[in-house]
Amino acid sequence: MKKRIAIDMDEVMAEPVSRFEEWYYRDFGERISYPRVASKLFPDTISEERRKIVQQYLHTKGFFADLPIIEGSQEVVKELMDNGFEIFIATAAMQFRASFEDKYDWLAQHFPFIPWQNIVFCGNKSIIHADYLIDDSPYQLRAFSGTGLLFDAHHNQRENGFMRVHNWQEVRAYFLG
Amino acid sequence: MKKRIAIDMDEVMAEPVSRFEEWYYRDFGERISYPRVASKLFPDTISEERRKIVQQYLHTKGFFADLPIIEGSQEVVKELMDNGFEIFIATAAMQFRASFEDKYDWLAQHFPFIPWQNIVFCGNKSIIHADYLIDDSPYQLRAFSGTGLLFDAHHNQRENGFMRVHNWQEVRAYFLG
Question: Across the beta sheet with B4-7, what order do the strands follow?
């Protein structure tokens, strides 16, 4: 029986923070940094007017289009498939109606070797039936019934409940030794 | 632990065949019947020109919009939730990029009591982690790891491998006695 690995998209395969920085600069002429965007305190540090605009970013078509690819993800996912692992993409897209087509197109463009049968848009990842889940969200890893691997991100630094992988080379080492 | 039931959309909650009949009449001025649409032989019985048009229906925006609701589905799904079952919607939307927003809107309109966290657009339903799956597709029920209930449809009459439910009253009887 093939072992199945489910993989989250945002901050694991695709980098949405740069899009956020880009739109913030476009709208307010100010450069902000990844740590500040990822901070839970960020919404409190901007004016209400800015907050309203910023909160719509994730619900705007184009936000998830053409996002940068996280380094090593394409090569390692392909290598895992070549070595007999079954790969499913599992992204919590349901929260963002405007993201569906952008996310679908992004995968088709950058991961054409993953068949549509193995792509999942969901909400709560307790519904995912897999042996492993690679995700930057401790919330989703806790919901998941298999073995969770926490993909390192600024927002999850204080989480200690899961094996942490800092990059795709560590994912390769974990599964392929 | 709550028992979890995953439910397919097309031909279980929503009726896409009537949309097919409607568009066929619009394009060719000819009324066709459900059995003929559902038949695997249908594509061979029409001209190549018609076939090309018809094959695009499922890939056209609007096809899955405003579909009729299958009788009893709203009431019984609500009753199952009220009786402690956890309900997830699991539809193989990945095959049809144009269907994402139509399906999402249809659920929001007709099943607003199902949270977005519990909606899944997938391909192969082996990825669904649930106790039960109600589906009209023997292919998906065979892929599923839990207990499958075959929702009666014209195209699955010859299937004998699963408990068959003919309508939502039978679903209610199965789970609530």
Answer: A163-165, A147-151, A132-135, A4-7, A86-91, A119-121, B119-121, B86-91, B4-7, B132-135, B147-151, B163-165
